[in-house]
Amino acid sequence: AGVALEEVGKGIMMKSPLAEIGGRMAACGTQLEQLSAQILALSPEASNGQISSQRMGYAAEKMIEAGNELMGTPKTKAKGKGWLKG
User: In percent, how much of the chain has pLDDT > 70?
Assistant: First the structure.
């Protein structure tokens, strides 16, 4: 994940196309998701491990979303009446 994040920074500094930067960012998010699962597997009963895993999972989700936005991938819209819940 660290190498992929470094590639994102390198792409930004070199003014690479946004789609390329977004792809690298989404790849980094995917690797963070895997790391999150591994942290949880190391100590499933420990609350610190669970919290760390949840936080890293959320960060991975947001990084993937950001990468998809940079690549121009359309967001999936919620179906139904979920917008009624406030």
Answer: 90
Burial of 28 (0-12, 13-18, 19+ CB in 10 A): buried
Report the candidate in 59, 49, 52 with the shortest Cα–Cα distance to residue 28: 59
The whole-chain average pLDDT of the chain stands at 86
Whether the predicted pLDDT of 86 surpasses 60: no
CA dihedral sign, ordered 54, 56, 58, 60: negative
End-to-end distance of the chain based on CA atoms, in angstroms?
Answer: 35
3-state secondary structure (DSSP) of residue 76: coil
Structure tokens at 10: 């390198």
DSSP conformational letter for 46: -
Residues 6+ apart with CB under 8 A from 27: 4, 67
Query: 59 burial class (0-12, 13-18, 19+ CB within 10 angstroms)?
Result: middle
